[in-house]
Every structure is written in C-alpha cells, then in structure tokens.
Predict the 3D structure of the following.
Amino acid sequence: MTQPVEEKLKRSAENAREAAEHTQEAAEHTQAAAKTTAKASVQMKDSADRRTELAANRTVFAAERTYAAWVRTGLASLASGIGAKKLLEGVVPDWMIVSTGSVLVLFSAFCFTAAVWRQVFTGSQPPQPDVQRIPPFLLLAFNGFLALVSLAALFSLWFGRTGG
C-alpha cells in the first residue's frame, strides 16, 4: 500500500472512532434526559395526587363549617323560642306565645337533626383526605342531646306558665 492510502485509512478510522464517541455521548445525554423526564412525570403525578388530597381536605372542612352553621342556627332558634315566652308575655295572647315558641323550638330540633344528616350522609365519597372527620357517634350524641333539650323546651312552652 501506498503512504497516502494508509493515511486516509488512519483518518477514516479516527473519524469513525470520534463518531462512535459522539454517538456514545448522545446516548448518555438521551438516557439522562429520559431519567429527568421520568422524574418530572412522577413529580407531576405526585403534584396531581397532592392537589386531589388538598381538595379532599377542603371538602371535609367545608362540611364541618356547614355542620357548625346548622348547629349555630339551631341554638339561635332554641334561644329565640325560649326567649319568646318571656319577651312576649303580657304583650300578645298566650296561644300566640306558645305557637311562636313552638315553631322556633321545633325548627331548632330540625336544625340539629339536619346537621347530623348532612355530616354523616355526604353523598359520593371524596378522595381520601389527610384530615380526620368528626366521628359520627360524637355527632349523634351531641346533637341528640341538643334535640332532647329542644323537646324539653317545647314541653316547657306547652305546659309551663306563660302569663304573669
């Protein structure tokens, strides 16, 4: 072989070696990019899961605010029904005092019942939240007691003295 042909073969072999190195580097970059993309995909999935959990937490807190609003309304109605007896005595006839107080006290018992109903029977279950819900037996016990107080107030309105 001649000198120029050997040099061409050496250059060609060196070019092939460089091309192989560049191909190896490109493969490594592609592999690193694939790992980064996989991490981003897992992170995006984790982010979506976290948003779902946070939404479930907000749903639980909204349900508890609704429960508190029902109980607050029931207590206000109970107090108004009992207060109507003292406030209206001597101003309006006794039958009007008893009927107004009865409606308000019965409405309070309804509010206590509706509070438990709305809290326990939520319809479709949201995704599993991080926060714990109030145990239903506590709701039943507490609101059951309030409903009994309402009934006692109702009997007091019906059978207690109204006039002065």
